[in-house]
Amino acid sequence: MLIKEDDIPALARGCAVLGTGGGGDVRTGSLAARRAIQAHGGVPLITLADLPEDALILPLSGIGAPTVSHEMIHSEDEPKRIAEEAERIFGRAPAAVMSSEIGGGNGVAPVAWAAQLGLPLLDADGMGRAFPEVQMVSMYVAGLPADLVIMSDVAGNVVTIRPVDGLWSERLARAVCVAAGSSALMADYVLTAAQARGAVIEGTVTRAIAVGRSTEQTADPLGALQDELGARRLITGKLTDVERRTSGGFVRGSAVIEGTGADRGRTLTLELQNENLVALEDGRVRAIVPDLITVVDTETAIAVQTESLRYGQRVTVLAWACDPLWRTVKGLETAGPAAFGYDLDYVPVEELA
């Protein structure tokens, strides 16, 4: 498959949904992707089977607070500087780009980065959604060593980090990110195709495009999206309170939705850290990380990022199951409720709903 300019709107809509409120603004990533395709041509979408065992894969993502990243736009030089540094370290050039997280702008922008580097894009990512911390990737859960992080910022700085483990990769990369103004470009878990087998979540780019296309040319985009995702509808209502703050390279806060129509009299509260992490109703958990929780516009089914939540918006909250990898013991240890400081047990959304 060749990702062309007319594929970008569907990809962006799907990535916004899979981003669960985070992963960066899809609008800036979409503009960058379309411009790069116009300049360099379509981007081949490949699978792991298309790569030799020793082919080097460059996982790229923006790191930082979404409230900053949609104003501080990545330059075209950042992915080039990272690719050059990876080639210097490994002695050979990367053979493909991969999105570290398919959610939000971090799922769309890799199309631009791949086009700018003249490389194909791997139909895979490290999350199947979006998560806020560096170690919260499938490669970490699979046990690959987190011994290299390469970062670049709009000022032209390049930082190479050699952390001792995944938790240190988050601490050190976050400190660099904050120093760069809470937004930077990052490659972590640079790996070979052989290492990637069983350690990445495959098919997620085509999945995002399918999710985005599900709402096209239908009289019921919300119903079509819910069916495509296999999602539960937690509430339909109006945003009545949003509390949001940017600190330590994250957006943290909460949002309150009061039910309307058939949901009148009900109230749902979302807890946020870049992404929607917990949905609570009357103190009872309705859905919880690592399962996916997304806020969408009730009429259009377009996802609303956490930084775009506003009082009075008419929204519906959907929740659905995460990739099975995140329900393993190591997956829950890495990105379950306790990893975000919640003293709550994980219960699959299909049981809670």
TrEMBL record:
InterPro entries named in the record: S-Me-THD-like_C, S-Me-THD_C_sf, S-Me-THD_N, S-Me-THD_N_sf
Domain (S-Me-THD N-terminal) ranges: 6-161
- Ranges for domain S-Me-THD-like C-terminal come to 166-349
Q: Which organism is it from?
A: Nonomuraea endophytica
Superkingdom is: Bacteria
- What is this protein identified as? DUF917 domain-containing protein
Q: Which Pfam families match?
A: S-Me-THD_C, S-Me-THD_N
